[in-house]
Design a protein that fits this description.
With 217 residues, this protein is mostly helical. It has a domain of 143 residues. It contains 7 helices and no strands. Helix 2 packs antiparallel against helix 3, helix 2 packs across helix 6 and helix 2 crosses helix 7.
Length: 217
């Protein structure tokens, strides 16, 4: 049996060990890894209606109109430009919403064949007077059809054309000039809306480039 002195010594040693253990500082935990926030670059703006980024927007004139092939033309040429727009619509607008355009266009031509023929002959004569190049009229008509055939906005153009075509078939020959003067701005509206949207895209892209640099091609 241990003596009383030995017991006291064991108690003292035990207390000393406990105190020593209590005095030892636990090692600090390793520093937490810094939280790295992912850096996202927003996608660069894209052209409206999936148009080409190289699309050329006609400039605005002093009168607020775009400098397009439909500017500075007389009543007969206005009528012919409307006829050309409806011709393009009849050929390119497809689907249930636009099925009637072809029939409307054909009826419009039939109902007003004489007036439209006179208009076309007068326009050709005007081009011969004003241009020594015999191909000037052909180039003009090619440019006109290309203008109306701008594919990115085909849907809104067809939406306008189907409304115009419904009025075209009930228009009398004596009212053709008035009809054309009203119809041409309506047919041009999708184009003007597109030009505004494209200019907004160009401004947004310029701001994006300033912030994030030129996009990778």
């Amino acid at each position: 049996m241990p003596s009383r002195r030995a017991k006291i010594q064991l108690v003292v040693i035990s207390l000393a060990v406990t105190v020593l253990a209590a005095c030892q500082t636990a090692p600090a935990p390793p520093p937490a890894a810094p939280v790295i926030q992912p850096q996202y670059t927003p996608r660069a703006p894209t052209p409206p209606f999936r148009a080409s980024a190289t699309t050329i927007v006609p400039p605005l004139r002093a009168d607020g109109l775009r400098q397009t092939i439909n500017r500075d033309i007389g009543p007969l040429q206005t009528l012919w430009h409307v006829r050309s727009a409806l011709n393009v619509a009849a050929l390119s607008c497809t689907g249930p919403l636009y099925n009637r355009i072809t029939d409307d266009y054909n009826a419009f031509i039939k109902n007003n064949s004489s007036s439209l023929r006179r208009a076309n002959n007068a326009i050709k004569a005007k081009f011969r007077r004003e241009n020594s190049d015999r191909k000037a009229h052909d180039r003009h008509m090619t440019s006109l059809y290309n203008y109306w055939s701008f594919s990115p906005i085909r849907r809104p153009f067809c939406d306008q054309a189907v409304q115009v075509s419904q009025r075209a078939i009930v228009t009398k020959s004596k009212d053709l000039n008035a009809f054309a003067a009203e119809a041409l701005p309506e047919l041009e509206k999708p184009f003007n809306d597109f030009y505004l949207a494209f200019e907004e895209y160009q401004r947004d892209l310029e701001a994006w480039n300033r912030e994030y640099g030129q996009p990778q091609t």
